[in-house]
Amino acid sequence: MFRGKLSIIVPCYNEEEVVNETYRRLKAVLQESGLRDHELIFINDGSRDGTLPLLRSIAEKDPLVVVLSFSRNFGHQPAVTAGLHRCTGDAAVIIDADLQDPPELIPQMVQKMLDEEAGVVYAVRDERKGETFFKRFTASLFYRLINGLSDVPLPMNTGDFRLVDRKVIDEFCRLEEKNKYIRGLISWIGFKQVPISYVREPRFAGETKYPLSKMLKFATNALLYFTRKPLKMAMGLGFSSVVVGLFLTVYAVLSRVLYPETTISGWTSTMIAIVFLGGVQLLTIGVIGEYVGSIFDEVKNRPQYIIGETISGRKTKDRSRAAKKATGKRR
């Protein structure tokens, strides 16, 4: 039996259609499994619908609920980061609000952590219901790509749905990267990590908050912030183009010397070489540019998120006002 305090971290973005059901199922699971010492941390990631009023109503009725409301939409990974920074439990579960990841799996995750003395229990999707072939294919491609490029083994077919204990949370909170790839960083932290399988359900309601554009941005951040191999590949591509260029030069000189009567000068080979080398250069510059942009984001040292309001039980704190007062004092 788990005798510590369990934190549940739930990032929310435009989830008014599902947030009440998410809360109901989470509370039912925690009560029925005897996990009565808990806290529910909902992070409102700048929702534009009625998510915040619903969360406020939930928090006012349940003193074990904390709502962190961002000043604007900062993204899923900053929302999870805020929850990990704020949680006070001996362990924490990260779960999305859309109910594709079943809250009913949480007691099994806790028991597996206890049985195997693990620091992390990550949920592996045996089946992904309600997702298109394109989504499943691109997800599989992404996992294989990031695994091939990463220096740290990353589990396949996993998301952020996982249970982490306090020592992992504390180490995570020491990491100061701005654009975090959380599932990769948790793997990088180490400690004993074990899988638990489940079937991922379709969304309970609403639409996916990860369209193709956000998926591409997420994949780009994962590659940029978790591996330097694209830079090495760009260098290797540049070296290969130099070798090809030298080979073509030798070939052209020998052809001119040995077969002067059959060598036909023309612009085709020249254009091919220019286009090829130009493409290599632009690709390499693009890769370097992305890394430089990432460095620029880091050195600006902006916060990963801004909490405009914290709602806990019947107590509400407006962080934006506090920040204004602090700014005024510094001036």
TrEMBL record:
The chain crosses the membrane at residues 234-254, 266-292. The keyword Ion transport does not apply. Residues 7-171 form the Glycosyltransferase 2-like domain. It is a multi-pass membrane protein. InterPro entries: Glyco_trans_2-like, Glycosyltransferase_2, Nucleotide-diphossugar_trans. It is found in: Cell membrane. GO terms for cellular component: plasma membrane. SUPFAM superfamilies: Nucleotide-diphospho-sugar transferases. The keyword Transmembrane helix applies. Belongs to the glycosyltransferase 2 family. GtrB subfamily. This is Glycosyl transferase family 2. It comes from Leptonema illini DSM 21528. The lineage of its organism: Bacteria, Pseudomonadati, Spirochaetota, Spirochaetia, Leptospirales.
